Amino acid sequence: MKLLVWGCLVAVLQVDAQVLRDPTVPPPATGLSASPMASRAPDFGSDAFGVIVRDGRPYLVQGSLLYGQGQQVGQTRIERITETAVWLREDGVLRKESLFPGIQLRVLPSNALPPGGPSAPPKTALPSAACVRIHSHCSSQKIEKFAP
Prior knowledge:
By secondary structure, the protein is mainly β. It has a domain at about 35-95. Helices cover about 10% and strands about 30% of the residues. The chain is built from one helix and nine strands. It has a four-stranded antiparallel β-sheet, with no helix packed on it. Strands 1-2-3 form a three-stranded antiparallel β-sheet, with no helix packed on it. The chain is elongated and about 100 Å long. The N and C termini lie far apart (about 100 Å). The relative contact order is 0.08.
């Protein structure tokens, strides 16, 4: 009987248990390094980045991480963040990384504006027909007609 118990014990001890993952280390699928000092600058070629404004300050967003102006990301310092680009300083060199590489902002020439300026109503205004308002809070719907 003792031999049977010892045999079962040896067999159970040889079973490989699943290795528990350290919750403080990012999963390997994210491509992030386990140590923050070993991390490199974010890959701005990916679509995983965006800009969010909190309390009037812009932040660069990667997944669930927020990077603010002046923060270090590996060896790279974030100098400036706008809605379309991020300025990074690495090894004393300042470079601009566009968040949307195919899109450019530009100022329209003054002749491209409609006559009367940008606040002028469009030429195709709605006809001056009577508008109808329906009160649905009544048991029977009451319809009022009024002129615009």
